[in-house]
Each structure stands twice: as C-alpha cells, then as structure tokens.
Amino acid sequence: MTVHLSNTSLFRKDAFINGTWCPAAGGARRPLHNPATGAVVAEVAECGAPDVDHAIAAAVTAQAEWRNRTGAQLQVILTRWHDLVMDNVDDLATLIVTEQGKPRAEAAGEIRYAASFLLWFAAEAMRAYGDVIPPTNPATRLSVIRQPVGVCAAITPWNFPAAMITRKAGPALAAGCAMIVKPSEDTPLTALALAELARQAGVPAGLLQVLPGDGVTLGKALCASPDIRKLSFTGSTQVGRILMAQSAATLKRLSLELGGNAPFIVFDDAHIEQAIKSAIAAKYRNAGQTCVCANRILVQDSIYDEFATRFARVVEKLQVGPGSDPDSVIGPLISAKARDKVEEHVNDAVSHGAIIMCGGARDNAGELFYRPTVLRDATPAMRIAHEETFGPVAPLFRFHTEAEAIAMANDTEYGLAAYFFTRDHARAHRVAEALEYGMVGHNTGLISNEVAPFGGIKQSGMGREGSRYGMDEYMEMKYICTDITDHTA
Ligand code: SIN
C-alpha cells in the first residue's frame, strides 16, 4: 500500500489545513483505489464539516495578510511553486497514473499543463490593472480598482487531478485570494502533493488548503459559509446545479465548468488525414474522459464512408492497458459506474441501428478497461447523441449541408467545446460564429492552453478559466468617484 516516489515528501494522506498535515477531526479515512488494478493505494483523511470550519478560519486570517502584498511578491511565490512542480514532474505523474489511470506520457503532459497556469498567473499578478474613466461632470474624477474577492473554494474533478487545481488556485492566489481545495474523492493524492509543493514555495499557512473528503458533505459546508465568497467547480451539470442552489443563500460568486457534448464536424473539403489525427486526439485523450472530448463526430455524406473506414483503422490499433505501461494509449475508466455508462451507450446505439466498426466491448486488461470504439450510422435517436459518454466511444453521424451540420451540432443543451474541419475560409467564419459554444477548434482537436479562455455557455456553465480573463473571476471591481472641487476657495 505505497507509491514509489523519488521525492517522498509528496506522498501525503492527511489533510493540509493551516499549513499543517493533519488527520480529519473525526479521524475518518477512506481507501483510495488504483483504477487499473483495483488495489488500495492509500487510506486518505476523510474531512468533515468541522475541518471546513477550521480551514475557513485559517483562510480568513491568511488572506487578510496576503491581499496586501504587491503583485511582484505574489509573482515570486507563484513562480517558485511553478518551478517546484516542474522539478517534480515524474513523481506527480506517478501519482496521477496511480490514482487516475491515464497513460504516463499524458500524466506528465498534464503536470506541465498544470504548471503552465502557475507561471501564467504569476505574471498576471503584476497586471491587475484598473481603469480611469473620462467623467461626465468636470468636477469629478472616476476610477475603477480591482480587489481580491476574498476566501474562495474549489471543488475539482478526477479527470485532471492537477491542472484543474492550478487553473483555479493560480488565479485565486495571484488575485490576492485564499483558496480551499476539495479534490475529487478519486484523486486526492495529486492535490495533496501540489499543496506540499506550494508550502515549499512559500505559500503562507492557511492560504492554500486541501481537504479530501465526501463531495456532498464538504460541498454543503463550503456553500453554507458566508466567509467563502466564491466557489469554482468543475464537474457535472447535475452537481453544478446543486452547488448553485446551495450557494444562493450566501450569494456566492460562481465559476462552473460543467458537462459538454462536443460536436466534431468534418466537411468534405477538409484535409481528411488531419481530421482523423485530430479526432483521435479530441476523442481518445484520457480514454475519452474530458469535458471537451469530441462526443459526436459529424461527417459530410460524400466522405462519410472513406472517413469511417480510415478512422476505425487507426482507432483499432490504439493500445489498451495500464497507464504505467509505456505502450498504453487508452487507460482504465475511473469506475465501474463510468464503464457501465459507456456500455449502456454502445448497447443503446446498437439497438437503434448503429454498426460497431471496432471495439464495442470491455478489454481484458482489467475490470475498468473498455476498447476504443467506433460506431457508424449513429442517429439523433440514440442516447449517445444527447448525453456525454465520457469514454472511448466515437459515434459517426452523417450530414449533407452546412446548415444541417450546424443545426445538428447545436442540437444539445450543452455549449462547451466544438470542432470543425474545413479548408474554405468563408465557411470557417460562418461556422465558427454559428456554433453555440464557448470554445471552437477550427482544423484542430486540441484547444486547451493557459493563455486562452476556457469555459462554456448554456448548460456547460459560466465563467472562464486561464487567460487574462481568468483573473476576473477572483477580483471584484470597485468604482471610486471623487469630487475635486476646492471647497476652501
Ligand atoms: C476538463 O475536462 O474539464 C478539462 C479539459 C482541458 O482542460 O482540456
């Protein structure tokens, strides 16, 4: 029951509260399983409401001091945190492989992605500019300053155990806020290791805290507290709605990065090889377990058969296996529930006429492995057309015209990411503007990075992460009006 790391200080199983590693107040622990093997990896502290109260009190004190530091001082500490994360890529990747299951190369890529948010927001800490507004009355001067929101909380998902923490904690700290992180029950170890590196970087006690534990219990306690001024959540739309309702009484600011149902449209003038490569990246990254994964692949009628055949030929060669095996490309799903949903979607599609071109079954690498699957002849009557599969299944839909493709793409309650492939310049503008999504990839299946705003519309949530806009989520705007009349004259 151990994980082999070079830097053993990163293997933490207790909560990190007020700069101290401590068991949960009630002493409870939860076994954590490796999804590739089912083995217990650690017994992790299971925090409860008293731990939340303890953390909030520490955060209030820490934030009161932190908010008065200069941008340059915050930049130094965040840059140090970034550097320490980069120095420990291998160990952090090992933690991700062990608790989340993604292949090692992808896990290391996630750590670099996570670190990029720290470096980006370290620089943004120096740029929390306000405004001077030309007045309507010559006797007044109008200005706007931006100030930290205060103590914030983040509830983060298992699919990106590191990046979804730095994408929230980075801007929070850069803006002068404190952050309490409630990581997923499935992936607390990476979060705790990041907290240890933040401590080593000089992040003061109470400013960044990590409380592993049950989402319902801790979510309720965080939402109920008037001291938590802002909550940032990445996860399902269903849970996002619950958190929003629970935050109503305290009128918390919210950032919600929720579910998606990304269309991936291939027009007949697309470069087919490029579209296939991009579809592999957009669909099978993290075994299909990302909010921006292509969920529906829409292919124009005249190239449908060619695309389907060539795509399935590549997909069937993707190697399934534990993330620790360097040859694995498709790791396990996170849980039996996740695997069952994938199976249900495939069975439902087949019962409505879809044809399995490859995959379509569990893999014998282990209980939670599912073969990368391509389904042709998918139709809107299938569940897979409307629900996020969150697994390695690509259903291929057929369309005839640009208008039909746009209508099909927008026929969903979600609006996170969309992708389309065309070499026609005018069409590219038309389609990008018509897609009802927060993010659009044109001739690419990989759109995420630290400098661009990540987020969705409709039932995919609200707010943006990363980019210069990411800081706004953690800052209040204060308008100051000054009468400059000299009343002594
Ligand atoms: C997510 O799945 O929520 C995040 C994916 C990304 O950052 O690319």
UniProtKB/TrEMBL annotation:
GO terms for molecular function: succinate-semialdehyde dehydrogenase (NAD+) activity; succinate-semialdehyde dehydrogenase (NADP+) activity. It comes from Komagataeibacter europaeus. Its EC number is 1.2.1.79. It comes from the Bacteria. Residues 24-480 form the Aldehyde dehydrogenase domain. It is an enzyme of class 1 (oxidoreductase). Belongs to the aldehyde dehydrogenase family. NCBIfam families: SSADH (TIGR01780). PROSITE patterns: ALDEHYDE_DEHYDR_CYS, ALDEHYDE_DEHYDR_GLU. The keyword Oxidoreductase applies. This is Succinate-semialdehyde dehydrogenase [NADP(+)] GabD. Keywords: Oxidoreductase. One of its GO terms (biological process) is gamma-aminobutyric acid catabolic process. InterPro entries: Ald_DH/histidinol_DH, Ald_DH_C, Ald_DH_CS_CYS, Ald_DH_CS_GLU, Ald_DH_N, Aldehyde_DH_dom, Aldehyde_DH_Superfamily, Succ_semiAld_DH. The gene is gabD. The active site is at E257.
